[in-house]
Write the structure tokens for this entry.
Amino acid sequence: MEYVLTFVNIQHNHAISPSRAKTLKKNRELSLHAKWIDEINDQAGVTIRNTYQSLATAAGDYDKLTFTQKDLWNHVARNVRVIEEEGDAKSLMQYFHRIQEQNRNFFYEVKLDEQHHIKHAFWADARSRATYEYFGDVVSFDTTYLTNRYDMPFGTFVGVNHHGQSLLLGCALLSCEEENSFVWLFDCWIRCMGGKAPIGILTDQCKAMRNAISKSLPMTRHRWSKEAFESSWTDFINRFSLHDNNWFV
């Protein structure tokens, strides 16, 4: 196959910022020193956020760093970020078993590492699964950081009903935010929902998440920002004069 270049548009629709090029994944690099500090601090119980702040202070500013906080996170997560304490892992599994005994429609899956520690966990209750049948056309997926004992990203699938109320459609704990982790999670979620993929999904601008969605949800339309959806929705309402229709506004 051959390609012929017939036209080039050198104009940009935004100001070029060379100083931000280093934040692109291909230009980021975690130095040996940063890796060593990251591992030592993690063993000492120092949070990733505090480690990142201390490294930025030592470098002179955040702009001086060649990596992001997420890079520090993923470095540690690849090796040690698991639910490894016997009591906590056992309690989590006991909780899952107990809830499933009370309601067989409660769904959960866990992924273990080589030492049989819990690396990822996903769960959804019967209400979430039933709700998805009616309001699962468009969902959003988001992760929060550093909000639990193990500093593991907590992911949520959320939908919206016809009253504009948010609906929880599943939860997960992940060891890291890498493509394989998201593929595992999205596959679990689709199995939980009877193999029915949503028409659309909204996420943040995470390349690993985008790649995982293309593999696990190939027929689902993926959009990066909620703001873009809100803007398009407003244009739709204005175009068809739906301001007085309670089903749309």
Remarks:
- Helices lie at 32-43, 48-59, 69-77, 86-102, 126-135, 179-192, 207-216, 226-239.
- The two ends are 49 Å apart (CA to CA).
- Strands lie at 107-112, 118-124, 138-144, 154-160, 166-173, 200-202, 221-223.
- Residues 29-77 form one domain.
